[in-house]
């Protein structure tokens, strides 16, 4: 594989326009500088790129196909294509950046991967990469989430990871971040903090995006092969923004391709704590070591966020998305819980593909778009499969769809 990490580069300090950067305690500055230097080095190192490409192919199952969803297209009037990240090993796009980060950590001589997880998706993908590369893995998770996300907790343990409960405060994601960070600071020499999306201090937004750019690079080639042209629209859901950035990165210079990010409107877009639509409802600020749009209370604390898709409920967003929004290069839309659940059943029943609830937000937007733009080509990133969601969806919503 040639070096394909060639997209819009942030400044040396990690800024995309005014967003990104590195707002961290002084004792972390040196560690982050080392990670940046190591990352710069491996992007020029053919043996690293070859090893990652080989894992993508033989372990993850890449390239993932692009599928022309003909029945869905016929029903809604546009040509809808799905980038099938749901078919990856472990069932979502997250394995793409977890392998990249784990491989980098190993090359830097680190022995242990550390991270927080909310619903457990990032934890499972990272524990998988750690097992594959023979590294230790410690995942911090709120006690409340541990009880809620039992299957993922079991998966992580089977994979050999240690799951550390965060027992203070609300015992959810924010506390897991605190707990993981504290554990990381105790030994940043031997440990590597593997961030789960295009967020955090420099160089993580660029690095995670680069690892995810394989999605866009493949899809761009595949759809041209299938249709002889570029799509009119690309669509992806946005939590932290990694699957969207991975897809968008290949189309940034194609002015004719409209980029659509889809945020969760949850139960109520007009009420604090009832959604996680950061770019739609937030304002620029600094949190978790970087500047971006975020949902903040008046005293600068992260607002409570909510979405039916636990992978989307983060109160900030990757800085490059904030930049693309201000530039007007990408548009950000919202889809609420009910629309996402409708799309979950629609894709299942019309195409035989059960999507993750996160990805269902992108499906819902693509369906709306198809009705507005008849005949146009829409490429949507199906970021993950819905196996993890079926019990929850049937318990809570099944009756409305003739189940249970
Ligand atoms: C975690 C997750 C997301 C959200 O993360 P991004 O960084 O915004 O991509 C989306 N889809 C699935 C299936 C996920 O597991």
From TrEMBL:
PANTHER family: TRYPTOPHAN SYNTHASE, TRYPTOPHAN SYNTHASE-RELATED. The beta subunit is responsible for the synthesis of L-tryptophan from indole and L-serine. This is Tryptophan synthase beta chain. NCBIfam families: trpB. The modification N6-(pyridoxal phosphate)lysine is found at residue 94. Keywords: Amino-acid biosynthesis, Aromatic amino acid biosynthesis, Lyase, Pyridoxal phosphate, Tryptophan biosynthesis. One of its GO terms (cellular component) is cytoplasm. The gene is trpB. It comes from Sulfuriroseicoccus oceanibius. It catalyses: (1S,2R)-1-C-(indol-3-yl)glycerol 3-phosphate + L-serine = D-glyceraldehyde 3-phosphate + L-tryptophan + H2O. InterPro entries: Trp_synth_b_CS, Trp_synth_beta, Trp_synth_beta/beta-like, TrpB-like_PALP, TrpB-like_PALP_sf. Residues 61-384 form the Tryptophan synthase beta chain-like PALP domain.
């Amino acid at each position: 594989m040639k070096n394909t990490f060639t997209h819009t580069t942030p400044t040396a300090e990690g800024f995309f326009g005014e967003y990104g950067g590195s707002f961290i305690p002084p004792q972390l500055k040196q560690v982050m500088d080392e990670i940046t230097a190591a990352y710069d080095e491996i992007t020029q190192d053919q043996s690293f790129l070859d090893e990652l490409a080989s894992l993508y192919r033989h372990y993850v199952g890449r390239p993932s196909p692009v599928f022309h969803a003909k029945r869905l297209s016929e029903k809604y009037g546009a040509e809808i294509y799905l980038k099938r990240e749901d078919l990856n090993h472990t069932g979502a796009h997250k394995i793409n950046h977890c392998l990249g980060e784990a491989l980098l950590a190993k090359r830097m001589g680190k022995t242990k991967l550390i991270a927080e997880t909310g619903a457990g998706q990032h934890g499972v993908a990272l524990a998988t990469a750690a097992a594959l590369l023979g590294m230790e893995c410690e995942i911090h998770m709120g006690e409340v989430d541990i009880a809620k996300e039992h299957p993922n907790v079991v998966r992580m343990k089977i994979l050999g990871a240690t799951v550390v409960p965060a027992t203070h405060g609300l015992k959810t994601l924010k506390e897991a971040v605190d707990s993981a960070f504290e554990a990381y600071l105790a030994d940043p020499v031997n440990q590597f903090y593997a961030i789960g999306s295009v967020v955090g201090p420099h160089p993580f937004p660029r690095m995670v995006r680069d690892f995810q750019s394989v999605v866009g690079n493949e899809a761009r080639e595949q759809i041209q092969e299938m249709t002889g042209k570029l799509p009119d629209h690309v669509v992806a859901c946005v939590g932290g923004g990694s699957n969207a950035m991975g897809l968008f990165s290949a189309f940034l210079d194609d002015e004719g391709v409209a980029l659509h990010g889809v945020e969760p409107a949850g139960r109520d877009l007009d009420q604090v704590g009832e959604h996680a639509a950061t770019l739609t409802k937030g304002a620029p600020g600094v949190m978790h070591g970087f500047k971006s749009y975020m949902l903040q209370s008046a005293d600068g604390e992260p607002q409570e966020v909510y979405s039916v898709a636990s992978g989307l409920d983060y109160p900030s967003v990757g800085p490059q998305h904030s930049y693309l929004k201000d530039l007007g290069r990408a548009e950000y839309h919202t889809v609420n819980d009910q629309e996402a659940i409708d799309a979950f059943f629609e894709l299942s029943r019309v195409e035989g593909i059960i999507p993750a609830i996160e990805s269902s937000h992108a499906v819902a937007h693509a369906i709306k778009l198809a009705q507005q733009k008849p005949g146009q080509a829409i490429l949507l990133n199906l970021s993950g499969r819905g196996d993890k969601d079926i019990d929850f969806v049937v318990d809570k919503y099944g009756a409305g769809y003739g189940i249970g």
